[in-house]
Design goal:
18% strand; alpha/beta; Arginase, Chain A; eight-stranded parallel β-sheet
Length: 305
């Protein structure tokens, strides 16, 4: 039976510190995401783009930039992702900035509660995204989604999925982290997030990292991957607004995705922070599509089952 996949565009940069990721969904479509997935045996429906308020590009208020707009977009995302899961489909959210992970993952967590499933979240990112209004240096909410999902944030975001907190820190594995603000670092340690930063990957390798990140998955576990394109080294993926040197190489990222695919547990996906305005001839979108293909079973080597 073919895998039933839905593409959901969320063209907004209201949570980001640079404009341009609102063009990310179209760049992924131009890079042939749907045909690539279809060649891998998926039955793909492109649901088009969600609608939400424009980016007012204003200064933070009480530690948050554009809070009402971020809430509106995340409500749209939550409804759309939840609907696809209820229909037995695998939603791929095409961002847009990473604040949208609040709506996406709160919908996944709601679905898992109702289905009696466990949830594992792999957060592939250069950043921990665990800021709050009290410790954020910028007020940009794309630096806060994991904290909000764990119950630390404004009520309209924290309560989005109808359960507070939406997820437990122990359900999250962060991979590729290499840029964490000082206050955020203390909060990450305090909350006990499991973080495989780039030093860990350098010392232990991507294979060992992913074995630990995927450990204890079973048939009753829903695996959600939240893939921020700045997870990759900027030499591989320049089209992001928050580049941080020293990220995974192309091959390390391929191995990461292939091992996730081998688990057989992928149930939902975010692809976030692609900024075509900063890209070179859509290179980053094309790399992202290649990695998504690996998530859905495209392997570098011919392997016997």
């Amino acid at each position: 039976m073919p895998r039933l996949v839905s593409l959901i565009g969320a063209p907004t940069d209201v949570g980001a510190g640079a404009r341009g990721v609102s063009m990310g969904p179209e760049a992924l479509r131009v890079a042939n995401l749907q045909p690539v997935l279809e060649r891998l045996g998926c039955q793909v429906l492109d649901r088009g783009n969600l609608n939400g308020p424009p980016n007012p590009w204003q200064a933070p208020v009480d530690g948050y930039r554009h809070l009402s707009e971020v809430v509106a977009w995340n409500r749209e995302v939550h409804t759309a992702v939840y609907h696809e899961l209820q229909a037995g489909r695998l939603p791929i959210l095409l961002g847009g900035d990473h604040c949208l992970g609040i709506g996406s993952i709160s919908a996944v967590a709601r679905h898992c509660r109702e289905q009696g499933k466990k949830l594992r979240v792999l957060w592939l990112d250069a950043h921990a995204d665990f800021n709050t209004s009290l410790i954020t240096p910028s007020g940009n909410i794309h630096g806060m989604p994991v904290a909000c999902l764990c119950g630390h944030g404004p009520a309209p975001l924290v309560e989005l999925g109808g359960h507070v907190p939406a997820i437990q820190p122990s359900w999250v594995r962060q991979i590729g982290i290499r840029s964490v603000d000082e206050g955020e670092k203390r909060f990450v340690h305090e909350m006990g997030l499991e973080v495989f930063d780039m030093r860990y990957i350098d010392e232990m390798g991507m294979r060992h990292t992913m074995e630990l990140a995927l450990a204890m998955l079973d048939a009753h576990t829903h695996l959600h991957v939240s893939f921020d394109v700045d997870f990759l080294d900027p030499d591989v993926a320049p089209g992001v607004g928050t580049t941080v040197r020293g990220g995974p190489t192309y091959r390390e990222a391929q191995l990461c995705m292939e091992m996730i695919a081998d688990s057989g547990r992928l149930g939902s996906l975010d692809v976030m922070e692609l900024n075509p305005a900063l890209d070179v001839r859509n290179q980053t979108a094309e790399v992202a599509v290649e990695l998504i293909a690996s998530l859905f079973g495209k392997s570098t080597l011919m392997r016997r089952g």
